[in-house]
């Protein structure tokens, strides 16, 4: 398995765990912001430098970077929510964004390790 695959798998695993915690409501608001900051740092330090000339992977990396920044904004809106209904909507938005991020990681992983077909 390539180093790129390992890094994307680690990122996807952290995203899945965060989505699970967000969905279950098992988090502290300040911890939530810190976890997203940690995800961004992991992405910037560990994954971006491994970029290949592959335009698809670069496109996915650009989208992942954008979605991580938007996730941080979602957290700000969630922390500012005063009504339960608004907070619930913000949590759903964060969960949807995390799902999108996970799908991007999986798309890159599938691209890196195409399935072998038997003839």
Structural account:
- The chain is mainly alpha-helical and 119 residues long.
- Helix 1 runs antiparallel to helix 4 and helix 2 runs antiparallel to helix 3.
- The chain has one domain: Four Helix Bundle (Hemerythrin (Met), subunit A).
- The longest helix has 29 residues.
- The model has no long low-confidence stretch (mean pLDDT 88).
- Helices cover 81% and strands 0% of the residues.
Describe the secondary structure blueprint for this structure.
Elements: H1 3-24, H2 29-47, H3 55-80, H4 84-112
Helix pairs in contact: 1-2, 1-4, 2-3, 3-4
Organism: Nostoc piscinale CENA21
InterPro entries: PatD-like
Protein name: Heterocyst frequency control protein PatD
How far the N terminus sits from the C terminus, by CA atoms, comes to 24 Å
What is the rounded Rg?
A: 16 Å
Shape: elongated
Find the count of extended strands (DSSP E, 2+ residues).
0
Structural class: mainly alpha
In short:
By secondary structure, the protein is mainly α.
Notable traits:
4 helices, Four Helix Bundle (Hemerythrin (Met), subunit A), Heterocyst frequency control protein PatD, elongated, about 80% helix, mainly alpha, single chain
